[in-house]
Protein 1
Amino acid sequence: MTRYISSSINHCILLIGLLIMIVPVWIIFASSTHSSLFINTNGLQFFLGDNFIENYSRVLFKKSGFFNEITALKMFFNSFVMATGIATLSVITSLMAAYGLVYFKIKYATIIFWLIFITLLVPLELRIMPSYIVMSKLNLVNTFAGLILPISASAIATFFFRQFYKSIPDELLEAAKLDGTSSWRFFIDFLVPLSKTMIAAVFIFMFVFGYNQYLWPLIMTTSEQYWTVVMGLKTMYGSISDRFAFVIMSMIPPVIIIVFLQKLFIQGIFQNK
Amino acid sequence: MSFLELQNITKIYPNGTKAVNETSLNIDDGEFVVFVGPSGCGKSTLLRMIAGLEDITSGEISLDGNIINKIDPSERDVAMVFQNYALYPHMSVFNNMSYGLKNRGISKDEINNKVNDVAKLLEIDQLLTRKPSMLSGGQRQRVAMGRAIVRNPKIFLFDEPLSNLDAKLRNQMRLEIKKLQRQMGVTSIFVTHDQTEAMTLGDRIVVINNGVVEQVGTPKEIYSKPNTKFVAEFIGSPQMNLFQCKIENGLAKISDMQINLNNSLNIQDACIGVRPDDILISDQGEYSSSANLVEYLGSDMIIYSSVGGQEFSCKLSSKINLKAGDNFKFNISPSVLHIFDNTSGQRI
């Protein structure tokens, strides 16, 4: 009986938490399906309206920005390229950095590792001027490369991969050596598939990190063609329901990535067991 | 044809530990040699140096007459079975076995044939699509062996491959390894700390202690004529009884027990060894003692007793009726004694 009560209480708490998270999003979604006029006169809505297709297609294809040069669709594309680029490059660089640090007999590997780790204390906002100068000297302002490169090395991901590699028994490398594998093949045939689950986790983390960037793309782009969704959120003008629709759509890409990779992540965990 | 020659092999670790000291050894083609010794004696290090996984501080290793000191492990053409098997966890059994062949650029058809043949030989042909995590300990062991066999190497190296198995499976795998080795005739080196494994598997046994080879010989030689006190104690189960004594004119005095050695030896600090099964218990025995403890093993039993404060054990048929606390008489024939110098540990 007490077990039943305590489990009910637990579920109640979880339910309240869920509502706190979900209700605002739902209200935005429901409101975004009404016309602006209706919202302006009747306030936020809890129930769906009938302007869904009209509102969303208008937002996606309407030119906006200061000079009316960019559509929301293009912003989604930009954000997607930037986030995917950052996530992919971080995974590649940190996988390789960790491989070098753990498997090559580098003399000061630990010191080098801690130097990499210390960069966690220097976030992008702190090095934004030098980063900008470097990028502009390389003529990378207003390019995707400029948006992606300065944030595509992750100390925390390097740390995760390093710890994971250290837990792999040496015999695996030795057996592979006797089987005639090269350093490169050991990386590709062993470390990459073995760290599949961790790659998925780092990818999710870095994708969301890249998608949420605001200050860096703001500084790095002068052309509206490179605006991202988060920048668009700030500068989006138009009717209230259009903005709500935009907010809802801006949540979709990270959600898709998380849902999609979470599956792979869980699969990986069960495979390794 | 592959024979291995070790010449004055020494391994000193960067922290100054001398793991292997001036070891020289010849291993003939098709021979099954077992390195045996207590943990940390350097037997695994020696094996790893042969495999190329460990650098050699000084000395030379040659395979078929070619010095292989500096040759990459993959090019030495040796295969190794590891203690924890080191199977590739993300690959199927088939891929585990074929990985080495693929790296050698062998055609797909040939790989298929070879893997299937070896899988049949080891009775793992039903498991080829499974991942190592889905296999039992014994099956993993077979896959690890299969991975080594399929490459058809010049030398097999086994690094305590049976120590993770339960006792029954260990005996079974031991037999199978021996059979396979006979069948294939590949030169093999087997490292173990278990003297039973060493005795049953090896054509020759190399007993190693503190990085030094104590004795090399056939199991029979090692058992019947141990060169040093260490070998005498290490080989044989239950272990050999060693009595500290003084020998005067061929008469060994172990407190009030005196054994006539039928010679004219005079040693102040000697050590006399006698195997537990060489102590004969009979009513007409010359010496007497009482049983402190009796261990019943089924067909045999082991009696623990002491003479002059020095403990000893004897192994006899369990048909003899003897309980703890009983007095018994026994005989020791001088011909079964092993006499060692107590300070140097060498056989006299």
Protein 2
Amino acid sequence: MIGIVNYKAGNSHSVMNACKKIGVDCRYVGGEDDFADVSAVILPGVGSAKATLDSLREIGVLPRLEELVLKDGVPFLGICVGLQILFEHSEEDDVDCLGWIEGSVVKFDETRLRVPQIGWNRLTWEKSDPLFAGLGGGGFFYFVNSYYAKPARGEDILAVSDYGGRFCAMIRRGNIYASQCHIEKSGEVGLTVLKNFCEGAGK
Amino acid sequence: MLANRLIACFDVINGKVTKASQFRDNIDIEDAVTAAKRVYDMQIDELIFYDVTASAEKRPIDLQLVEAVGREVFVPYTVGGGIRNLTDMYNVLKSGAEKISVDSMAVRNPEIIAQGAKEFGSQCIVLSTQVKRVGRSAKIPSGYEIAIDGARVFTGMDALEWARRGAGLGAGEIVVNSIDNDGTHHGYDLEITALIADELRIPVVASGGAGRMEHLYDVFTKTQASAGIISSMLYSPRLERNFTVREIKEYLHGRGVPVRPYVAPRAT
């Protein structure tokens, strides 16, 4: 059973629609005691890191999530701001984040670029991974972001894209995956990534 | 590098996708959910859904339909029409849309842009505008005036000034709908599209007039537009022939315009 974290600031509905489309067993999870049968967790995200953290704290889901992901090694996939909050700090609202992954989240250069980045951008894989099964060397994914992550450890970077320079588009460390692009809104290519995750990538 | 986006925009009346010409004479195309699935399967980059009569009929948007369309579409999905306040916005987002489009209501109450951007983020708020060429004057320095309510009411507002203000209030994208070119198939209004796209730092979506693939080449090479609406080309019965998303993308790619490539479906 895939657990989709459902909180006020997220777009869990779109992720649920995508999971149903690819035919995986999934349900919303929210409260702390909600995870008994959950074999993998997806954390959807839109909007700001601070609003997301506030909203997750409000439903009290973080302690249990940290236990599952960091201690028990349950596969985890964060999407968009669900990637950003895994780092130590975000420039957006100057907020301290969860610190699961070393590094920080910074803003695109507004003097040179249209910010937010809105649209389809090409991803290239930094390494081969079960997440990319069936997808060749890369593909186009949908982004909506003003901020991007700068992982301190290069080996955490799983895929990169280019917006006025290369930036980190996906990370993986062990059972923890996260994607800056909205894989739930990236057409069939995105659904393939989601399916690969739900079918056991990260185990 | 970002790909230029091709967007299907559904004008929905009573659950049916319709096609207008210069904002009038709508003809029914097909059921909205079927149409959504069809354009998704064609690999459209994005979908906009306008409940065009919600505002005039002073009723909320049809959320069940919004939700049904959302179940078929796994690309970004914007919903507009009849959005009056934050509650309406919240309901639309919870029904599966990523973005909210505001148009006439934002002219009446510009603060709704700022409120929406603050609550949901700028990336959620699309300012849609209806622009008409009226000639330059002291009051309308850009030569384009903003209309509302299905191009029936003229506001005396300058289009460029309104776009600037909308971006300042927090809109994350702006759609420039040419009333003159809508449904004519003669091409986008490049002049106002370029004016607004040069001025603003947020993505600009060109709308109204695309009838041939060259029109997309023109708008992406002669203006800084990030996206073009191609509804008529996909399904208007008024057009001599319709196009697939695939052939438009292959045409643009062949001429060096960055697009998300069509991916042949895998045999299953």
